[in-house]
Amino acid sequence: MLKKTTCLGLIFIIVGMAQLSSAEENLAKKSQNPVGNIISLPIEYWHHDGIADDGSADALMLKPVYPATIGDITLINRFIIPYLGVDANSTGEDLGDITTPPLAFNESGFGNIQYQGFLTPAAPGDIIWGRGAVFELPTNTSGLGSDKWSAGPAALVLTMPGKWVIGALVQNMWSYAGPSDEPSINKLTFQYFVNYNLDNGWYLTSTPINTADWTKSGSNQWTVPLGGGIGKLHRFGKLPVDFKLQAFSNVVKPDGGPDWSMMFAMKFLFPK
Do 90 and 256 contact (CB within 8 A), yes or no? Predict the structure, then answer.
């Protein structure tokens, strides 16, 4: 009788652990989905090195996400709020989500705030899509951004078969208002993301941000990074936090652009 009770107890424990592991994997995949229906507060630190040969730039970014569901559609609201520190004599750089103007001095302060809004099905199928718009507001201080107002379309598609989360996001912004003596903005951002989920909340990840500045010509248009890293979903009590560390080498870059970048991110998740 004791052996039967012990065996049944072990079976319940194993089943419970499997269900917990499955729930954690589902939460990790939802965190990796840019249009996942989950409230989150990502905090990212970026370091860019090799600007104008020996300069560097650092960025601390808040990216709060708040989804709102109305009927069959969910609106994903995402803000990008950057604080920058640039130590370089640069001609203006594409730093992923951020573009800095030409700088001939060391400076720190706030960059331009971006808003991204995506409409996505509340009950998505195997192929998940999102479409919407991006807006950039000239909120910068100390000259750490354009004083132009910019906006443009944005779209996303992804799929999550098995342990994979694979997809891409593309957007293009054009300036439409602001000082006439400021350079115009016409910038493409293309980000693909490939994640493979391992056991116990660990996952492999690659999410490089490719950019093209259409106002420039030739080899100065594109920034193309290659690289990746590792992530881990961990719970602090009932609060899940998604950690991620990545490094990238810019295999294509404009003159004076950064040679390499690294990022560390913490995403606080607030599942319903």
Answer: yes
Domain enclosing residue 68, as ranges: 2-270
Phi and psi at 131, nearest 5°, equal: -140, 145
Q: Tens of pLDDT along 143-177?
A: 888 999 999 999 999 999 999 999 999 999 999 99
Give the chain's length: 272
Say which amino acid occupies 161.
P
Give me the half-sphere count of Cα atoms (radius 13 Å) on the Cβ side of residue 212: 10
Give the three-state DSSP class for 8: helix
Element (H, E) at 2: helix 2-32
Condensed to tens digits (0 to 9), the pLDDT of residues 251-265 reads 999 988 899 999 999
**Do the beta carbons of residue 93 and residue 46 sit within 8 Å?**
no
Model pTM score = 0.88
Q: Distance between CA 36 and CA 26 in Å, rounded?
A: 11
Number of domains the chain is built from? 1
Instruction: Kindly report the CATH number assigned to the domain that includes residue 115.
Output: 2.40.160.40
